[in-house]
């Protein structure tokens, strides 16, 4: 598989390659992402587990309960603490990459706003992108947003 995108943690101890286009990318306004990013939302993209290749280092992992009630395995650099990606228990073959850890996240398109009910009042732009109040079934949205652009 050829590498399309690269990324890693802040100190360089963990590096990864992504070998496919994302299945979906979105802004998540849940309180978990707000805390994880110390900001208003997280820019996330999903790929299948075989399309995220750890090239250097080994992420540390902790499991917690997400706003949805599902378990979420959070993977981060054990040296500098940078959050890298998560594995949702509801879809264990998916990796939710925190797109801010890409070497160049500027190309990542926003296809959805999820957990919009948790958004800070000023944090959702008037961009015409669909807003979902909570956690959607992402498997349903992958085909929908791909076919609609």
In short:
The protein has helices at 31-37, 138-148; strands at residues 5-8, 15-18, 24-28, 42-48, 52-56, 60-65, 71-76, 83-88, 94-98, 113-114.
Mind explaining what this structure looks like?
With 149 residues, the chain is mostly beta strands. The protein has a single domain, classed as glutathione-dependent formaldehyde- activating enzyme (gfa). Helix content is 12%, strand content 34%. The protein has helices spanning 31-37, 138-148; strands spanning 5-8, 15-18, 24-28, 42-48, 52-56, 60-65, 71-76, 83-88, 94-98, 113-114. A seven-stranded mixed sheet has the order 6-7-8-9-4-3-10. The chain has a three-stranded antiparallel sheet with strand order 1-2-5, with no helix packed on it. The chain is globular, with a radius of gyration of 15 Å. The two termini are 25 Å apart.
